[in-house]
Amino acid sequence: MSLSAEQIGEFRSFSEQLADAAAAAIQPYFRASLDVEDKGGRLYDPVTIADKAAEEAMRALIQARYPTHGILGEEQGAALGSSPLTWVLDPIDGTRAFITGLPLWGTLIALNDGTRPVLGVMNQPFTGERFIGTPHGAWRNDTPLKTRACADLAAATLMCTTPDMFDTPARKAAFEAVAGKARLMRYGGDCYAYCMLACGFVDVIVEASLQPYDVQALMPIIEGAGGVITSWDGGSAQDGGCVVACGDPALHAQVLAMLRHAI
User: Fold this and answer.
1) How many domains would you assign to the chain?
2) What is the dihedral of CA 150, 241, 12, 95, to 10 degrees?
3) pTM to 2 decimal places
Protein backbone atom coordinates (compact mmCIF):
# COMPACT_ATOMS: atom_id res chain seq x y z
CA MET A 1 0.00 0.00 0.00
CA SER A 2 1.58 3.26 -1.14
CA LEU A 3 1.28 6.12 1.34
CA SER A 4 1.42 9.79 0.42
CA ALA A 5 3.66 12.28 2.19
CA GLU A 6 0.54 13.68 3.86
CA GLN A 7 -0.43 10.24 5.17
CA ILE A 8 3.11 9.59 6.42
CA GLY A 9 2.93 12.90 8.26
CA GLU A 10 -0.40 11.97 9.86
CA PHE A 11 0.88 8.58 10.99
CA ARG A 12 4.14 10.08 12.23
CA SER A 13 2.21 12.49 14.44
CA PHE A 14 0.08 9.62 15.76
CA SER A 15 3.16 7.45 16.40
CA GLU A 16 4.49 10.20 18.66
CA GLN A 17 1.23 10.07 20.62
CA LEU A 18 1.80 6.34 21.03
CA ALA A 19 5.35 7.00 22.24
CA ASP A 20 4.10 9.53 24.78
CA ALA A 21 1.48 7.09 26.08
CA ALA A 22 4.01 4.29 26.41
CA ALA A 23 6.46 6.58 28.20
CA ALA A 24 3.82 7.61 30.73
CA ALA A 25 3.11 3.93 31.45
CA ILE A 26 6.77 2.93 31.71
CA GLN A 27 8.57 5.72 33.53
CA PRO A 28 7.13 5.12 37.04
CA TYR A 29 8.70 1.64 36.96
CA PHE A 30 12.21 2.46 35.73
CA ARG A 31 14.80 2.17 38.50
CA ALA A 32 12.03 1.11 40.88
CA SER A 33 11.49 -2.17 42.68
CA LEU A 34 9.19 -4.38 40.62
CA ASP A 35 8.40 -8.03 39.98
CA VAL A 36 9.94 -9.65 36.93
CA GLU A 37 8.52 -12.71 35.18
CA ASP A 38 10.45 -15.06 32.90
CA LYS A 39 8.56 -15.96 29.73
CA GLY A 40 10.75 -19.03 29.34
CA GLY A 41 12.57 -20.25 26.27
CA ARG A 42 16.20 -20.90 25.35
CA LEU A 43 17.37 -17.69 27.05
CA TYR A 44 16.11 -15.72 30.04
CA ASP A 45 13.28 -13.58 28.66
CA PRO A 46 12.04 -11.12 31.32
CA VAL A 47 8.78 -9.18 31.23
CA THR A 48 7.42 -6.62 33.71
CA ILE A 49 4.23 -4.75 34.41
CA ALA A 50 5.80 -1.81 32.57
CA ASP A 51 6.04 -3.82 29.33
CA LYS A 52 2.42 -4.92 29.62
CA ALA A 53 1.02 -1.52 30.60
CA ALA A 54 2.82 0.28 27.79
CA GLU A 55 1.61 -2.09 25.10
CA GLU A 56 -1.93 -1.93 26.44
CA ALA A 57 -1.86 1.87 26.33
CA MET A 58 -0.64 1.90 22.72
CA ARG A 59 -3.14 -0.73 21.59
CA ALA A 60 -6.03 1.22 23.10
CA LEU A 61 -5.06 4.35 21.17
CA ILE A 62 -4.65 2.48 17.88
CA GLN A 63 -7.96 0.67 18.23
CA ALA A 64 -9.75 3.95 18.99
CA ARG A 65 -8.14 5.97 16.17
CA TYR A 66 -7.59 3.36 13.45
CA PRO A 67 -9.88 0.39 14.21
CA THR A 68 -9.21 -1.24 10.81
CA HIS A 69 -5.44 -1.36 11.30
CA GLY A 70 -3.70 -4.53 12.42
CA ILE A 71 -1.47 -4.69 15.49
CA LEU A 72 1.49 -6.95 16.24
CA GLY A 73 2.92 -6.58 19.72
CA GLU A 74 5.46 -8.49 21.76
CA GLU A 75 3.21 -8.96 24.78
CA GLN A 76 -0.22 -9.57 23.22
CA GLY A 77 0.61 -10.99 19.82
CA ALA A 78 -1.24 -10.27 16.57
CA ALA A 79 -4.65 -8.68 16.01
CA LEU A 80 -5.46 -8.77 12.31
CA GLY A 81 -7.09 -5.76 10.71
CA SER A 82 -9.03 -5.28 7.50
CA SER A 83 -6.51 -2.66 6.34
CA PRO A 84 -3.07 -3.56 4.90
CA LEU A 85 -1.56 -1.29 7.57
CA THR A 86 -0.18 -2.91 10.72
CA TRP A 87 1.37 -1.29 13.79
CA VAL A 88 4.31 -3.32 15.13
CA LEU A 89 5.06 -2.67 18.80
CA ASP A 90 7.75 -3.57 21.30
CA PRO A 91 6.87 -1.64 24.46
CA ILE A 92 10.31 -2.13 26.02
CA ASP A 93 13.03 -3.41 23.74
CA GLY A 94 15.87 -4.19 26.13
CA THR A 95 13.95 -5.37 29.19
CA ARG A 96 17.16 -6.88 30.60
CA ALA A 97 18.71 -3.41 30.53
CA PHE A 98 15.50 -1.93 31.98
CA ILE A 99 15.47 -4.22 35.02
CA THR A 100 19.15 -3.54 35.72
CA GLY A 101 18.64 0.23 35.66
CA LEU A 102 20.54 0.85 32.41
CA PRO A 103 18.98 3.36 29.97
CA LEU A 104 19.81 1.19 26.93
CA TRP A 105 16.19 0.31 26.23
CA GLY A 106 13.45 1.93 24.24
CA THR A 107 9.89 1.70 22.97
CA LEU A 108 9.74 0.54 19.35
CA ILE A 109 6.83 1.56 17.12
CA ALA A 110 6.63 0.69 13.42
CA LEU A 111 3.96 1.10 10.78
CA ASN A 112 4.09 -1.60 8.09
CA ASP A 113 2.25 -0.78 4.86
CA GLY A 114 1.70 -4.43 3.98
CA THR A 115 5.01 -4.80 2.20
CA ARG A 116 7.56 -3.22 4.55
CA PRO A 117 7.87 -0.83 7.51
CA VAL A 118 7.58 2.76 6.29
CA LEU A 119 7.66 4.55 9.65
CA GLY A 120 9.74 3.77 12.70
CA VAL A 121 10.09 5.28 16.18
CA MET A 122 12.49 4.44 18.99
CA ASN A 123 11.59 6.42 22.09
CA GLN A 124 13.87 6.61 25.14
CA PRO A 125 11.99 8.76 27.66
CA PHE A 126 14.64 8.59 30.40
CA THR A 127 17.28 10.24 28.22
CA GLY A 128 14.73 12.38 26.39
CA GLU A 129 15.62 10.97 22.98
CA ARG A 130 13.18 10.15 20.21
CA PHE A 131 14.50 8.64 16.99
CA ILE A 132 12.16 8.68 13.98
CA GLY A 133 12.60 7.31 10.48
CA THR A 134 10.39 7.81 7.41
CA PRO A 135 10.90 7.54 3.63
CA HIS A 136 11.96 11.20 3.82
CA GLY A 137 14.79 10.89 6.36
CA ALA A 138 15.64 10.15 9.99
CA TRP A 139 15.93 12.36 13.04
CA ARG A 140 16.96 12.35 16.68
CA ASN A 141 14.45 14.76 18.20
CA ASP A 142 14.73 17.55 15.58
CA THR A 143 18.27 16.81 14.40
CA PRO A 144 18.70 15.00 11.05
CA LEU A 145 20.67 11.76 11.26
CA LYS A 146 23.43 10.57 8.95
CA THR A 147 25.47 7.39 9.19
CA ARG A 148 29.22 7.69 8.83
CA ALA A 149 31.45 6.41 6.04
CA CYS A 150 33.39 3.27 6.94
CA ALA A 151 34.04 0.93 4.04
CA ASP A 152 36.52 -1.40 5.77
CA LEU A 153 35.70 -3.81 8.58
CA ALA A 154 39.22 -3.34 9.99
CA ALA A 155 38.27 0.27 10.83
CA ALA A 156 34.75 -0.50 12.06
CA THR A 157 33.02 -0.44 15.43
CA LEU A 158 30.80 -3.51 15.75
CA MET A 159 27.98 -4.03 18.24
CA CYS A 160 25.81 -6.97 19.23
CA THR A 161 23.40 -7.30 22.15
CA THR A 162 24.76 -10.66 23.34
CA PRO A 163 26.76 -13.56 21.86
CA ASP A 164 24.12 -15.90 23.31
CA MET A 165 21.70 -14.93 20.53
CA PHE A 166 23.60 -17.01 17.95
CA ASP A 167 21.68 -20.24 18.14
CA THR A 168 23.71 -22.53 15.88
CA PRO A 169 27.44 -23.26 15.72
CA ALA A 170 27.58 -21.93 12.13
CA ARG A 171 25.96 -18.62 13.09
CA LYS A 172 28.19 -18.20 16.12
CA ALA A 173 31.28 -18.93 14.05
CA ALA A 174 30.22 -16.48 11.32
CA PHE A 175 29.66 -13.75 13.90
CA GLU A 176 33.02 -14.44 15.54
CA ALA A 177 34.75 -14.23 12.15
CA VAL A 178 33.28 -10.77 11.61
CA ALA A 179 33.99 -9.64 15.17
CA GLY A 180 37.57 -10.84 14.91
CA LYS A 181 38.26 -8.44 12.04
CA ALA A 182 36.54 -5.36 13.51
CA ARG A 183 38.56 -2.60 15.14
CA LEU A 184 36.27 -2.44 18.19
CA MET A 185 33.65 -4.91 19.45
CA ARG A 186 31.04 -3.97 22.06
CA TYR A 187 28.16 -6.00 23.53
CA GLY A 188 24.88 -4.60 24.82
CA GLY A 189 22.73 -1.84 23.44
CA ASP A 190 19.61 -3.55 22.09
CA CYS A 191 17.67 -0.98 20.04
CA TYR A 192 19.87 1.85 21.29
CA ALA A 193 22.85 0.44 19.40
CA TYR A 194 20.94 0.63 16.11
CA CYS A 195 20.12 4.27 16.79
CA MET A 196 23.77 4.97 17.50
CA LEU A 197 24.56 3.45 14.11
CA ALA A 198 22.06 5.89 12.57
CA CYS A 199 23.82 8.72 14.46
CA GLY A 200 27.22 7.75 13.06
CA PHE A 201 28.84 6.34 16.22
CA VAL A 202 28.61 2.63 15.32
CA ASP A 203 29.42 1.06 11.95
CA VAL A 204 27.97 -2.44 11.99
CA ILE A 205 25.55 -4.53 14.05
CA VAL A 206 25.30 -8.31 13.64
CA GLU A 207 22.52 -10.17 15.46
CA ALA A 208 20.35 -13.28 15.31
CA SER A 209 17.19 -14.72 16.91
CA LEU A 210 15.30 -11.43 16.43
CA GLN A 211 11.52 -11.08 16.18
CA PRO A 212 9.70 -8.74 13.75
CA TYR A 213 8.89 -6.34 16.59
CA ASP A 214 12.60 -6.17 17.50
CA VAL A 215 13.65 -4.76 14.14
CA GLN A 216 10.82 -3.24 12.09
CA ALA A 217 10.86 0.17 13.82
CA LEU A 218 14.64 0.37 13.41
CA MET A 219 14.64 -0.23 9.66
CA PRO A 220 13.24 3.20 8.60
CA ILE A 221 15.57 4.93 11.09
CA ILE A 222 18.69 3.28 9.70
CA GLU A 223 17.62 3.55 6.08
CA GLY A 224 16.49 7.15 6.53
CA ALA A 225 19.96 7.99 7.86
CA GLY A 226 21.65 6.42 4.83
CA GLY A 227 22.43 2.98 6.24
CA VAL A 228 21.54 -0.53 5.12
CA ILE A 229 19.79 -3.23 7.16
CA THR A 230 19.00 -6.70 5.80
CA SER A 231 18.89 -10.35 6.71
CA TRP A 232 22.17 -12.26 6.45
CA ASP A 233 21.28 -13.37 2.91
CA GLY A 234 20.62 -9.80 1.78
CA GLY A 235 16.82 -10.03 1.94
CA SER A 236 14.40 -7.98 3.98
CA ALA A 237 15.10 -7.80 7.72
CA GLN A 238 11.45 -7.22 8.60
CA ASP A 239 10.75 -10.80 9.69
CA GLY A 240 13.63 -10.75 12.17
CA GLY A 241 15.92 -13.76 12.46
CA CYS A 242 19.54 -13.08 11.44
CA VAL A 243 20.04 -9.36 10.81
CA VAL A 244 23.00 -7.18 9.79
CA ALA A 245 22.97 -3.37 9.76
CA CYS A 246 25.74 -1.11 8.46
CA GLY A 247 26.13 2.63 8.13
CA ASP A 248 28.13 2.31 4.90
CA PRO A 249 26.76 0.22 1.99
CA ALA A 250 30.29 -0.87 1.05
CA LEU A 251 30.85 -2.25 4.55
CA HIS A 252 27.49 -4.01 4.38
CA ALA A 253 28.57 -5.83 1.22
CA GLN A 254 31.82 -6.92 2.89
CA VAL A 255 30.12 -8.21 6.05
CA LEU A 256 27.28 -9.86 4.15
CA ALA A 257 29.80 -11.94 2.22
CA MET A 258 31.10 -13.27 5.55
CA LEU A 259 27.66 -14.10 6.96
CA ARG A 260 25.63 -15.31 3.99
CA HIS A 261 26.65 -18.97 4.24
CA ALA A 262 25.51 -19.28 7.87
CA ILE A 263 21.87 -18.25 7.59
Assistant:
1) 2
2) -100
3) 0.95
